[in-house]
From TrEMBL:
GO terms for molecular function: calcium ion binding. It is a single-pass type I membrane protein. Residues 27-133, 134-242, 243-347, 348-451, 452-563 form the Cadherin domain. GO terms for cellular component: plasma membrane. GO terms for biological process: homophilic cell adhesion via plasma membrane adhesion molecules. Keywords: Calcium, Cell adhesion, Cell membrane, Glycoprotein, Membrane, Repeat, Signal, Transmembrane, Transmembrane helix. This is Protocadherin beta-7. The chain crosses the membrane at residues 683-707. The keyword Ribosomal protein does not apply. It is found in: Cell membrane. Signal peptide: none annotated.
């Protein structure tokens, strides 16, 4: 335990003996003032501002106030004028007793910056008490054998005043037998002695009464009297004599009541009643009578009340031994009280600053004073606080300490400190006192708001309703109070921001951080945008932070597909030529459409809603290719009309035996009327075919024979070759799709001159497919060569 205590001394404790030097802010000599006791409250004592050479404003700004060891506010400082005033009536006898001079130390405490100025107030005594004899009557027995010049010590008077106002003289009433001499004991006390002027004769005058008067030195003087009754006794040869004229004893202050202090002894050579000795106190004060008692027979001095070294360190007693004949002897007993460590140290708080602002080093938290009423090592003290705290104790003068911050405090780390101030004396056993203080740390706006995320991504469906809540941003501030109240705002975009109109798109709730879309958003116009938001606290100065908000617009299926090919804005329907010799799966054309939406909303599916021959054509659902579903027959109508694949596209399909059959629809030609219902036509054809089946077979056979015989000649004249079309017409790319680069309307015109001409028209649509491969070029070249291109 003691080892830990010694280590603590090395770290944070300072013995108050080491305080007296090196303090630049301490005044070496105290300021001294005086005031008479019983002076009225509010009496002017001094002007501290003038005495210290400080301005009144400076004295007030530095947080000046009066502190004292007595913990009583007997003085009052007016900070506006610097005047030191008496705060109450002072009774010197109550404050200091017989001690002279009566000095009340106090300190002037300046907190900003910390400074202690010592001062003293001396309370001057006034003559407000008269001398008082403890006994109204004093009985003396004087033997008639006493010769002139014999002295008898009388009881002295008590006066609470001191100095010149205390007892300074004694007188007796005029008589022919005695007079008064003054005896000084060397400690400032005056005792009256009665001196016999002539021999007393018991037969002539058995009793003598005189008046003893005590006078003080005040102005005017005060007095007190007592009656001295002298009884003349028969001859008594011997007076009692003490073995020692003076005794001296040391008694610890913790001596139990009733304990024997000392035993005095006197002898008388007479016999009988003249030799019987009675012990008593002589001119004992009230304090002595309350503290001690003496056995009148044995002379043993006992303790009547508890001793207190801090109140009275020494007692001086006069003990009288008187025999039966009236003769007496006296001795002095000096009782010295020895100090023991019976007083724990005291902590007197002068000021406590709580809360204290964070981030402010060397801040004075508390000012206090320690004291121990014991003496010697029992009164030496050391002061400490706990380890691992950002505070340190600094000693000052007059046992003052300041508790200051050792390093800047952080309220966000710790908002409250419980500090235990421990004061331990060096007595045996060691006594200690602890005082707990709580220090609150006030907030300083040293933390900017922090967003929960550095960036936010919000998803908003398009075509939203105005004022739609699209999301919430949040920021927290580690500070407290107004320093932690966060307000949100949209930050203005830079001048070159790609979305300068963001203020018309979103708004933010300044208190909650809720974001709202101000108008409906269109995915096809604005798919995404971003902006920055700020969060600022309400401290002074305000701190802020930023975060990025990205808004993604979710697509809704609000756009119908748009057909790029066949062109839906052409003035005439789009016509496609289909050779009758085409096999099943022949690629007639490809419908190309797009959708402005995205994702699944842009996935297109093609289907054939209505056709002249429903079973003849089919549309691939995923790529829009229109192909023959079966080989063509003679019964198939030469013209087919498909209803619109979209709201504005119509596709006409013309069946031709070969490219030699001339047909080229004029751009301005009106569309032909759609044939009758295909079911009716089929019924009519079926009925007609039953009756003419044979004739039709013969004609067909003859026609085929004629075509075979005239094949070479027809080729030379540019006729269409019989049989199926070459491969390149069926599938140029090998993927089942006819390349747009080689999709032409071809019409074989036969004139009267018998010559064959090719009219090459421009492509119907631009080349939307990738570059054709070399194999495609060769196949197309061979195709052209077969027609003598």
């Amino acid at each position: 335990m003691e080892a830990r205590l010694e280590r603590a001394v090395q770290k944070r404790q300072v013995l108050f003996l080491c305080v007296i030097l090196g303090m630049s802010w301490a005044v070496t000599e105290p300021l001294r003032y005086s005031v008479a006791e019983e002076t009225e409250r509010g009496t002017f004592v001094a002007n501290l501002a003038r005495d210290l050479g400080l301005g009144v404003e400076e004295l007030s700004a530095r947080g000046s106030r009066i502190v004292s060891d007595q913990n009583t506010g007997f003085l009052l400082l007016n900070p506006l004028t610097g005047d030191l005033l008496l705060n109450e009536k002072l009774d010197r006898e109550e404050l200091c007793g017989p001690t002279e001079p009566c000095v009340l130390p106090f300190q002037l405490l300046l907190e900003k910056p910390f400074q202690i100025i010592r001062a003293e107030l001396q309370v001057r005594d006034i003559n407000d008490h008269s001398p008082v004899f403890l006994d109204r009557r004093i009985l003396l027995k004087i033997s008639e054998s006493n010769t002139p010049g014999a002295t008898v010590l009388l009881e002295s008077a008590q006066d609470s005043d001191v100095g010149t106002n205390s007892v300074s003289n004694y007188t007796i009433s005029p008589n022919a037998y005695s007079h008064i001499n003054l005896h000084d004991d060397g400690h400032g006390n005056i005792f009256p002695e009665l001196v016999l002027d002539q021999v007393l004769d018991r037969e002539e005058m058995p009793e003598l009464n005189i008046t003893l008067t005590a006078w003080d030195g005040g102005s005017p003087p005060r007095s007190g009297t007592t009656l001295v009754r002298i009884l003349v006794a028969d001859i008594n040869d011997n007076a009692p004599e003490f073995v020692q004229s003076s005794y001296k004893v040391k008694v610890p202050e913790n001596t139990p009541v009733g304990s024997l202090v000392i035993a005095v002894s006197a002898r008388d050579l007479d016999t009988g009643s003249n030799g019987e000795i009675v012990y008593s106190f002589f001119y004992a004060t009230e304090r002595i009578l309350k503290t001690f008692q003496i056995n009148s027979t044995s002379g043993n001095l006992h303790l009547k009340a508890e001793l207190n070294y801090e109140t009275t360190e020494i007692y001086s007693l006069t003990i009288q031994a008187k025999d039966g004949g009236g003769l007496s002897g006296k001795c002095t007993v000096v009782v010295e009280i020895t100090d023991i460590n019976d007083n724990s140290p005291e902590i007197l708080m002068s000021s406590l600053n709580s809360p204290i602002a964070e981030n402010t080093p060397e801040t004075v938290v508390a000012i206090f004073r320690v004291r121990d009423r014991d003496s010697g090592n029992n009164g030496k003290m050391m002061c400490s606080i706990q380890d691992a705290l950002p505070f340190v104790l600094k000693p000052s003068v007059e046992n003052f300490y300041t508790l200051v911050t050792e390093s800047p405090l952080d309220r966000e780390t710790r908002a409250e400190y419980n500090i235990t101030i421990t004061v331990t004396d060096l007595g045996t056993p060691r006594l200690k006192t602890q005082h707990n203080i709580t220090v609150q740390v006030s907030d300083v706006n040293d933390n900017a708001p922090t967003f929960t995320q550095t960036s936010y991504t919000l998803w908003v469906p398009e075509n939203n309703s105005p004022a739609l809540h699209i999301g919430t941003i949040s920021a927290t501030d580690r500070d407290s109070g107004t320093n932690a109240q966060v307000t949100y705002s949209l930050l203005l975009p830079p001048p070159r921001d790609p979305h300068p109109g963001l203020a018309s798109l979103v708004s933010i709730n300044a208190d909650t951080g809720q974001l709202f879309a101000l108008r409906a958003l269109d995915y096809e116009t604005l798919r995404a945008f971003e902006f920055r938001v700020g969060a600022a606290d309400r401290g002074s100065p305000a701190l802020s932070s930023e975060a990025l908000v990205r808004v993604r617009v979710l697509d809704a299926n609000d756009n119908a597909p748009f057909v790029l090919y066949p062109p839906h804005n052409a003035s005439a329907p789009c016509t496609e030529l289909l050779p009758r010799a085409a096999d099943a799966g022949y690629l007639l054309t490809k419908v190309v459409a797009v959708d402005a939406d995205a994702g699944q909303n842009a996935w297109l599916s093609y289907q054939l809603l209505k056709a002249t021959e429903p079973g003849l054509f089919s549309v691939w659902a995923h790529n829009g290719e229109v192909r023959t579903a079966r080989p063509l027959g003679e019964r198939d109508a030469p013209r087919h009309r498909h209803p619109p694949l979209s709201a504005s596209v119509t596709l006409h399909v013309l069946l031709v035996d070969g490219f030699s059959q001339p047909y080229l629809p004029l751009p301005g030609a009106a569309p032909e009327r759609v044939p009758a219902d295909p079911l009716t036509v089929h019924l009519v054809v079926a009925l007609a075919s039953v009756s003419s089946l044979f004739l039709f077979s013969v004609v067909l056979f003859v026609a085929l024979r004629l075509c075979r015989r005239s094949g070479p000649a027809a080729l030379g004249r540019g006729s269409v070759p019989e049989g199926p079309f070459p491969g390149p017409l069926g599938d140029v790319s090998g993927t089942g799709t006819l390349s747009h680069s080689y999709r032409y309307e071809v019409c074989l015109m036969g004139g009267s001159s018998g010559a064959s001409d090719f009219n090459l028209l421009k492509p119907i649509v631009p080349n939307l497919l990738p570059q054709t491969t070399g194999r495609e070029v060769e196949e197309n070249s061979s195709f052209r060569n077969s027609f003598d291109f």
